[in-house]
Amino acid sequence: MARWALRRAAAGGVLLWLVATLTFALVSLAPGDVASRLSDSRISPAVRERWRHDFGLDRPLASRYASWLGSALSGDLGSSWTHHRPVTDVLAESIPNTALLASLGLLLEIAGGVAFALAQLRRPHGAADRFITVVSLTAYALPTFLVALGLLYVFSYSLHWLPSSHLLSPAGELATGWARTRDLLAHLVLPVLTVGITGMGAVARYLRGSLLDERTQGYVVAARARGCSETRALLTHALPNAMLPLITMIGLSLPFLVSGSLVIEVVFSWPGMGQAMYAAALSRDLPLLMGGTLVATFAVVVGNALADLAYAAVDPRVRV
Amino acid sequence: MSATTTRHLGRSAHLVANGPRRLRVGLLLLTSLLCVCSLGPWWAADPSAILDPRVAALLPPGTSRIVVERRDGSTLAAESIRRDGDVVVALRGGAEERLDASEIAAIRETSYWLGTDTLGRDVLARLLHGGRVSLAVGALALFVAVFVGVAVGMAAGLAGRTVDAVLMRLVDALLAVPMLFLLILLAALFRPSVFTLVAVLGFSSWMGVARLVRGQVLSLKSRDFVLGARAIGCGPLRIAVVHLLPNVTTPLAQDAALRLGDLILVEAALSFLGLGVQPPLASWGGMVAQGEELVMGGWWVSLFPGACIAATVVAAALIADGLGDLARAQRHA
Predict the structure, then answer these.
(1) Integer Cα distance of A239 and A216 in angstroms
(2) Which pLDDT tens digit goes with each residue over B22-32?
(3) B75-78 and B80-84: which strand pairing?
C-alpha cells in the first residue's frame, strides 16, 4: 500500500511537472510578449519597460522557468493581474463552489444513469429499453450550454420557480442558518441538474452494455436458479460487478466534469473556478490561467488516484 | 477511377447497405447534415444581412415580412402594405410610411422559417452558414488529431522503450488537463480564428488516438506479417504505413467517429463562450450564445443551432456504435 502510494505520488509529480512546463512553454513561447499584447499604443515605452520588469520578462527564459517551477512547488502561483491578489487566494475562494457543484452533479449523474440502465434491463430490447436508449443518446449529445439555457428558460424566465444565477440571492447573503441553506439549495438546483442531465446519458449507455454482459454470466443465472427475483438478481448480483468499471470510467471522465462545469458556471454566474478561469481568459490574466490549469490538473490526478483506491476497496481481487 | 477505388467504393456501399442499422442511420444523418450545410448557402439568404431591426427583429419561426425594393436600389421592410391610389402605405413597427408607387421597383415577401434574431438576421441562413463552419472546423481538427495521434502512437509502439515511455507520459499528462481550461488559456494567447481553432483543437485531442494506435501496434508488431516484412528489409516507416496502418483502421474509425462528436461539442462550447469562431462569422455554438434573445422569449435563436449540434453528435455516436457492431459481427462470422 505504502509502495503503491509512493509510486502513484511519483508518477503524479512527473505528470504535474510536465503540465507546469507545458503551460509555461505555451505562455512564454507564444508570439509577442505579454507586455506588448496587454498594452495599447498610447502607453509610453517607459511604462512598458517597467511592466516587462514587473512581470520578470527582462530575465532570461531559463531563470523565469526555474522561478515559476520553484514558487509553484512551494505553493505560490504568483499574483493575479486582474484581482491583484495571490492566485492561490482567488482559487481557494472559488474551488469549494466548483467542488460542491461538481460532486452533487456527479452523484445525480450516477444515480440517474443507474436508474436508466436498470429500467432498460427489466426487459432488454423492449419498448422502454428502446425509448430510454434514444433518451440517453440525446442527453449524451446535447451541448451543456443548451441544457443550461433550456433549464434557465423554462424554470427561471418562464415559470419563475428558481433563481437564474449566482450562489446566493442578496437576501440569502444576509440570512443565516436554514434560510441561507435553502437559498443556496434553490440556486444549486439548475446547475446541478445540468451536470446530471448531460452526464447521465454516458453513464446509462455504458452501464446498459455492461449489465447486458453480466446478466448472462454464470453467477447471475445461478442466483436466478436459486429463486432470486429478476430485480434482485440484477440489483444485488449483476449491478455491483457492472459498476466496477464505472469507477474507473468516472475517474477518467473527471477532466470532462471539470471542463463541463466551466460552461455551466459561466451560464449560471456560479462563482467557481471555471468562471474565474473564463474571466481570466477574457482579460488575459495569465498567472491565474496558468495556476488554475495546474490546480485543476492536480485535482484530476488526485481524483484518479482516489478512483483507483475505491476500485481496490470494492474489488477484493485488486490489491494496491 | 481506378479499379481499386471502385472496388473500395463498392465495398463501402455494400457495408452501408447491409451493415448494422445504427451505422446506416448515423451515416445517413451525418451525410444529410453535411449536404444541407454545404449546399444550403447557395440558396439561403445572406446570413449577415440585417433587414431592419425595427421590423424584423426576433420574429418567431414561420413569420414573413414584405420587402419593398426601391428604384434607387435601397430596400425597406414592412409588416404589411396596402395601396392607396398612387401611394403605397407600408406599416413599419407600428408607424405608417407612405411611399410613392413610381419609386417602387419590386415587392416581395420573405419568409423566416426559423425566425430571426435581435438584429433581424435570418436564423435559417445563419444555421446553414454556421453549420459549414462548425462541421469544417470539427472535421479538420479531427484530421489533425488523427494524423498526430497515429504518428505518435506508431512512434511509441515501434521506436523502443525509452521513446515509448517519454511519449506515453506526455499523453498521460495532457489527458489529465481539463481540455477546456487548456483551450481557454490558448484562446487568451492566440487571437481566435478558424485556423488557430483547428490547430488548437486538433493538437489538444490526439492523445486518445495515440494511446489506441500504440496499443494496437504493440499487439501487432510481433505477428508474422510484421516479422516477415522486417525480414525482407522493410524500414520502420514502411512497416508503419503499409503493414500496420491498414490493420488499425477499424478501431481507428470507431474512435474517430466518437472524437468528431467531442470536437464538435468542444468547438461549440468555445464559440458559445466567445473564444472560438468570431462574429460576424456564424457558427452553431456562437449562435446559441445569444442569450439576450432567450430572456425576451426568443427560444428559437438558441434551440435550432443547439439541436443541429446534438444531431451531429448523435450521428457520430451512432456511426461509432455501428462500426462496433460491424466489427463484432465480422469477428463472429
Answers:
(1) 13
(2) 888 899 999 99
(3) unpaired
Residues of A in contact with B180 (CB under 8 A): 258-260, 262-263, 274
For the record, the C-alpha cell of A214 comes out as 453480466
pLDDT tens by residue, A292-306: 999 889 888 888 888
Residues B249, B32: Cα–Cα separation, whole Å:
24
> Which residues 306-325 on chain B approach chain A with CB closer than 8 angstroms?
306, 309-314, 317-318
Q: Residue A33: its pLDDT value, please? A: 57
Which residues of B, range 178-207, sit inside 8 Å of A by Cβ? 178-182, 184-190
Quick check: A139 and A131 in contact, CB under 8 A? Answer: no
Q: Is B62 left (phi over 0), alpha (psi -120 to 50) or beta?
A: left
- Which among A29, A152, A92 has a CA at the least distance from the CA of B299? A152
- Pairing label, strands B80-84, B87-92: antiparallel
Distance of CA A238 to the CA centre of its chain: 29
Higher pLDDT, A114 or A38: A114
The percent of chain A in helix, strand and coil, each rounded to the nearest 5, is 80, 0, 20
Q: Name the pLDDT band for A238 (thresholds 50, 70, 90).
A: confident
Bond before B280 cis per omega within 30 degrees: yes
DSSP-assigned letters across all residues of B101-149: GGGEEEEEEEEETT-B-TT--BHHHHHHHHHHHHHHHHHHHHHHHHHHH
Q: Is the pLDDT of residue A23 over 50?
A: yes
For residue A10, the SS3 value is helix
**What is this structure's pTM?**
0.87
Per DSSP, what are the bridge partners of residue B68? Answer: B76, B107
Dump pLDDT digits (tens) for B39-48. 877 766 666 6
* Nine cell digits for residue A206: 455504458
* Side-chain half-sphere CA neighbours of A298 within 13 A: 14
Chain B closest-CA separation from residue A178 CA (Å): 31
